[in-house]
Amino acid sequence: MTSEIEGELRKRMTETEDRHEQIVPSSEVDSDDDRVPEQTLEHRTKHTPHGTDQQPSFLHTILSPLPPRWRNWVIRGIFTWLMIGLFCFIIFVGPLALMFTTLLVQVWCFKEIINIGYSVYRMHGLPWFRSLSWWFLITSNYFFYGESLVADYFSVIFSKSDIMRWLIAYHRFTSFFMYIVGFVWFVLSLKKKYYMRQFSLFAWTHVALLIVVTQSYLIIINIFHGMIWFIVPVSMIVINDVMAYMFGFFFGKTPLIQLSPKKTWEGFIGGGISTVFMGMMLSYLMCQYPFFVCPVEFSESEDSFNYTCDPSPIFRPQEYSLPETLANFSALLGWKKTVTMYPFVLHSVALSVFSSVIGPFGGFFASGFKRAFKIKDFGDVIPGHGGMMDRFDCQYLMATFVNVYIMTFISETSPQKLLQKVYMLKPEQQLQLYNMLQDSLIARGILQP
């Protein structure tokens, strides 16, 4: 009996030693701290600022007699109208002010997303990672804006400088080299026991760049086609958000989606219908002003940006025949069988349908993101509302659709844009192109010899 017990003990000791030999020393693997229970996420992000709870001291003093719920409602309303007023002022200043504002919003949104990543992965003690994130932001902005915007829209200005001509000519190589510098920098910054966290934040940074930088670039491209392509879509998102809230508040009973329990089908449908009609009215009004519909182009003769033009056909009134049934009914009432409207008003219907049906999913995506990481807001820059990302989550999705819509159904090659390319050629190349074009026009009988 004793020999059997001793044999069993020796067997167990042997198995234990075998298991220890198969285990890699803890110093050679990543820390298990990455697999922290989900309930600790709230502790990690508890220091993330929440704008909906932010109350400026002077307003808090003035509104102190009100209950907290009404106090927050008043603060939210005040800053809503302040944002609308600021937006109108920026529009009044002009397209360049809108572009500059878009860049500022982009940087702030990126900052908010990256700060949440630092809080979740507790990376504050690791070297260089914050600097790396901003380096990749600079690199991506240089790539997008340096080639398309500078070469296509500002080439007349920058072609006068030899240094700028060189930068434009070697732009893609410079952009690639900048990214390689960041990539090597990241690899050299890797620390033992933190590999998983660092690679997670590396991916986090690139997703943030995809969401923020790409979309802001498309917004600016849309502005160059005319401010109406920026103002109308942005206004549609705001209208849909407000009207969905109103219909949901008064008539909402049926929940729409679990990510946002307060959203209802009644608000979703009511907001969508309101957006279509109000978007058409706004589009009709703006089509009457060249300041909103003219593309943003640089005039070499005036050495400044030109905001006047001969409007595109989609911004000129066109006469459309009514369907036969409506035409007969209109004739019975003594009305015309045709209707005159701006073609852009019809295009605005497609924009409003997208902003009503798909646009809210940008907000749902942001809601899911915040719930996943146990946070209420992305930041606290706007009291009563949250961070910049809380206000622009739907706008970025809308910007992509508008750009795709313009390139698919609206955009056409303009002589002004081709001329911008010509200005980037050397003088002898410009002269060669001129002679070739002249010979071709003479051969086709368009010009006299």
Automatic annotation (TrEMBL):
GO MF, any single term: phosphatidate cytidylyltransferase activity
Chief subcellular location: membrane
Locations listed in the record: Membrane
Basic and acidic residues composition bias: residue spans: 7-22, 34-43
Membrane-topology descriptor: Multi-pass membrane protein
Catalytic activity: a 1,2-diacyl-sn-glycero-3-phosphate + CTP + H(+) = a CDP-1,2-diacyl-sn-glycerol + diphosphate
Enzyme Commission number, as recorded: 2.7.7.41
Segments traversing the membrane: 78-105, 165-188, 200-221, 227-252, 264-286, 344-366
Pfam families: CTP_transf_1
GO BP: CDP-diacylglycerol biosynthetic process
GO cellular component, one term: endoplasmic reticulum membrane
Keywords in alphabetical order: Lipid biosynthesis, Lipid metabolism, Membrane, Nucleotidyltransferase, Phospholipid biosynthesis, Phospholipid metabolism, Transferase, Transmembrane, Transmembrane helix
Pathway: Phospholipid metabolism; CDP-diacylglycerol biosynthesis; CDP-diacylglycerol from sn-glycerol 3-phosphate: step 3/3; Lipid metabolism
Region listing for Disordered, in residue ranges: 1-54
Enzyme class of the recorded protein, top EC level: transferase
PROSITE patterns assigned: CDS
InterPro entries named among the record's database cross-references: PC_trans, PC_Trfase_euk
The family this protein is said to belong to: Belongs to the CDS family.
Protein name: Phosphatidate cytidylyltransferase
Gene transcribed to yield this protein: CdsA-L
